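User: I've been going back and forth on whether these two constructs are worth ordering. Before I decide, could you fold them both?

Assistant: Sure. I'll take them in the order you sent them. The first construct and its structure tokens:
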Amino acid sequence: MAQENLAGRTVAEYQLLERVGEGGTAMVYRAEHPERGKCAVKILKPRLRNDDNARKRFLRESEYGARVVHPSVVQTYDYGETDGLYYLALEWAEGEPLSDFVHRTGKLSPSLVSHIVTQLAGALRAAHASGIIHRDLKPENMVYDPETRRVMLLDFGIARDEQADPAQRLTRTGFFVGTLQYVAPEALSGELVGAPADIYSLATIAYFLLTDAHPYDGRSPRELFQQLLTADPRPLNQAGKGLKFSNELEQAVMKGLAREPSKRPETVELFAAGLAAAAEQGGDGTKKSGLLGAFKSMLGR
């Protein structure tokens, strides 16, 4: 069955120019708006337009994204339904998925990882201040521009509102949401999670960016699920051959990966600050100072 392609059509003043991506629930188009210029527009897939829960999730994503305003969060412009199409218009973010960048370049320097994590922590701080828990933090849900070193968070599709009535949840109790490689252990029970779960996911992203590996190495979803429930994550310096990070950097990352939520940093800002302090001291085990430190910082960009 051929996929729907709405390129060339105008939806709520957004002229859809080109289909540029696809997710589980929506197609993504590069679009032009008479006042806002270039935008991204998500359109709910045809097979889901008559699914009440799918429509609610799509509109909820739009609402949550609109509530979180921060330079490192892709801005939500507009959303709704017109002519039977459910749409979400977003700021156009230059760059590529952070996951693609890492797969193309390999592991990143501690200074660059700290720079990226600090931006994401600011985005999450704004989300948490608005009562929004993202729950699906992963490099695929972030756009990174290597030219500016700017990263932007998107996709609030499975976020939750801490102030919402739990009885109104769209995910059944006992079923976890998120991505296994990045989900916090406490989420596996399907219970509602809070900000510590996002801190754990952010720490997993930092681990991945530094090592091009994950804290758990399960080869199947079942094995990975079991490891998350019963095992401790691999220490940062054991993630791959030839890796050598300072004790301070390893401790900063592993604290964010603590199995018990209460043992993680209290906020995303504290996690990012700890990572930044360790990177500043020399995440590769050496203290940066003078011309040598400046040279290493340049190489890390």
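The second construct, handled the same way:
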Amino acid sequence: MPTTFQPTRRYAIQTCAALAAGCVLPTARAQADFPRGPIKIIIPLPAGGAADVGVRAMAIELEKSLKHSVVIENKPSGLYQIGLQALLQAPADGHTLMHLNSGMVAVQVVQKRFDLNRQLIPLTVSGETPMVLMVGPASPHKALKDLVAFGRANPGKLTYATPGPGSIEHLKVAEIEKVAGFTGLNVAYKGGPDMVKAVIGGEVDFAIAPAIFAAQFAPKGQVKVLAAVDATRLKEFPEVPTIVEAGVNVSPLRLWGGFAVLAGTPAPIVQRLHRELAAAATAPSVVERLTPFGMLIQASKKPEDFRRQIDLDAAWMSETAKGLKLDLN
């Protein structure tokens, strides 16, 4: 009769160690072999904007550290879905990245055609843009409470500029309306510069727009800033209260940009890309290029922090969008 094998304690320890080593080796190899060739970064926006300028500046830094070329592909229009589809068709090996922006969360919430945190792995934020609520030079409203009081007394009379229904700016104003108890009229414009022009010219009563625009026009008396839509007062407007200090208890708003890879990308590659992108985002050459655009250079401490930011934004946008008749088709 054959002898039954009885594993010793030493044998069990050796076996477990061997199995563990077998798991670690492929993981270590994946990181050691990365990158194997050029890195592609998809930007779902036209060339020439702040996002494009920033990514191209970062690409120069990445080429130095990764020792491979970094190729930028602009794939605008299609409400970000053209760029996203290009990423989804690529291998999950970290060689194709996508530049995300906070506007994509608004499209996700309204259209429900993609899920950034499910389909992608967020890597890091690369910059944030503070926002303010501003009125025109001829506005009778000296403080946010005056504008709110007028809106309550005159339903539907207050007009505000946004890039269109379902945009972040529209959703934030809708949140303010719900909390403050008034209803205004959304007027769509092509983008931030046109929105600010509309405020200056008196075409609309107010707008939520990047603080960099207010910093350009407020000293000339062309706009008045009633509140910083931020958690703290802005250094450009230290005398201007935050929106909560001004009496409207809504969440702060900053437009952000960042990077992601396809879900399924090996964890060591995700960690490597996070480190490389965080270092590139905060490089002096990148800071110099982006500061004139009013961006605050940021980098997530870990990928999970960026994922959490996307979840938080999606939460307030989803809550605000309830009851709004939004259709971006």
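Notes on the second construct follow. Residues 1-5 have pLDDT under 50 and may be disordered. The radius of gyration is 24 Å.
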